[in-house]
Amino acid sequence: MKYFIHFSWFLYGFWLIIPIHVHAQSDQDCRTKFSQKDYQGSADCFERLLQAHPTQASHLYNQARVFVIWAKTLPPQEAAKACFLRRQALQRYQRYEKLVSGDELIRIQAQIQQIQSSLELGRLTVLTTPPQAAATLQNPQATQQGRSPHAFDDICPGDYTLSLHLSGFQSISKKISILPKQKLIQSFHLVAIPKSPEPEYTLQIQSVPLGAKVTLQEGSRTQTGQTPFFFKAKKTSEIQIKLEYPGYRPQQHTVALQSNTTRSFTLEPKPPATQCVNWTPPLLVLGGAALLLGGGIITQVSADDSYRQAMQNLTKDPTWKTQYESSVTLAQVSGSLYIGAGAVAIVGGVLFFVSKKPCHPSSETVTLTTPSPETKASAHAFFSSLR
Global pTM? Predict the structure, then answer.
């Protein structure tokens, strides 16, 4: 157990020594690259060290020195890149300034002032109508972003590309040159992107027979007409269709309108209504006919003298003719029968026709409207296309 504890302390001490060794070796590698004038490699190497140890003052100072010397080696045509490197050095020196004191602080402050005076930075203010456009100022060395109205401060002299983007508006891209110590203001009017019109679909409704009443229901929108009927909608929707025609069964349909659509419907005829008859008037007619027949027979018989003789023999009364025929003649009796039979027949016939009605009356009524001028024109075009 004792040996194990000693070995554990040995491992812990070795773990403490390893980072120092690696750190020293990495710092030496960065210096080696700098001495070989591999400024890019040296700056990246110190950047990795700073990410591992952000408060390490020596890494900040060394990286800042790399940027300053690297900027001095660039030719005049790369002035924009040189300015970018000096700005990187300035940022590192300002961070280094917070970590030192005494004479070192005074020396660093002098270098910071010298770099600031040599930069000759410019300023670009971007204004847009409408505001809140995403503004991006970019060149091969740096990219800055903001939302208009926005001021890009401390810009190195050089050529830049300014890009503006705002939802619903056309994007803008413009080349801009910034001169040393220039304060430039740029205003832009963004043009709205025209909205594409909503697709318009046409529903054509035909029926057999033509001229049926059409009622369309699309949400809260209702439209009526007669077939052939044309309906236009600006969006995909479900349309309720109702068709009516006198003597035919009504129909209801649902159409999902997703494109130009033509629908044809065949209406079914209603079955004929069964007629019911009240038989009381016909019985009256039959009774009247019987009376009429009886009156005719009596009239015919009364003209024959044998009838009177037969009646005398039947009654055994020799005075029958004088007693009865003298007061009411047979002709008068037959005439009364004629009149009564005719009256009964007329009343029975009137009651027969009045009482005649359907057994199952239909309460459905259909009112056809006059086609509108648009419907007439559409129908004319439809029939013209069939010729």
Answer: 0.44
